[in-house]
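Hey, weird one. I pasted the Tetratricopeptide repeat protein sequence into the form twice and got a warning about non-standard characters only the second time. First submission, copied straight from the form history:
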Amino acid sequence: MVTDTRSPSRFTARRQLLGALLALGAAAPLLGHAASVDEAVQELQRGWETTRYQAPAAEREKRFDALAQRARALSQEHAGRAEPLVWEGIILSSLAGEKGGLGALPLVKQAKTLYEQAIQIDPKTLDGSAYNSLGVLYYKVPGWPIGFGDKDKARDLLQKALAVNPQGIDANYFYGEFLVETGKSADAVPYLEKALQAPDRPGRPLADKGRRDEARQLLQKAKGS
């Protein structure tokens, strides 16, 4: 019989250290997995920005369609993460905008479901983008019996997005746009001005420039009405 001559305290300490190292080893793939999700989401984001703000109008539908397929694969690969769902919804919404007409309704219904799933997972993900994007759908999509549009729900969701990110360019721009489109242009002015003054988002100069251009045009419309 071999007797372990190590003291109990040293043996326990070594076991604890081994357990900690094993835990780190188990966590390492998870950390790499999370990083890969973030990188893939950023690629979708860049693809959307270049298509939205730089691609010729005649090419946007095709590009958004291809981007939507990549987004779908990412959402399926990383089920349980809210960020891919939000970006898949944004891309589908943009694709619907390019298609237009009744052919866009199935796409916006898919986007609606994706935003709702993202909110269930993490309502504050991407600075409240799921609230914001779902609110936009509710005021842009026709109401019953054609679609699910609802101005009251839109207002509630857009205000939730503002509560999450009160200084954000998108949250302020889209609430301002909602107010303009619902006949409250004077109320929209401070939100659009705030969108123009919003801090730059890291790594998103193209999207920020495009949104500021849109905010500037809408502000002129709001002040002129």
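That's the output from the first submission. The warning seems to come from a hidden character in my clipboard, not from the data itself. Residues 41 and 187 are 34 Å apart (CA to CA).
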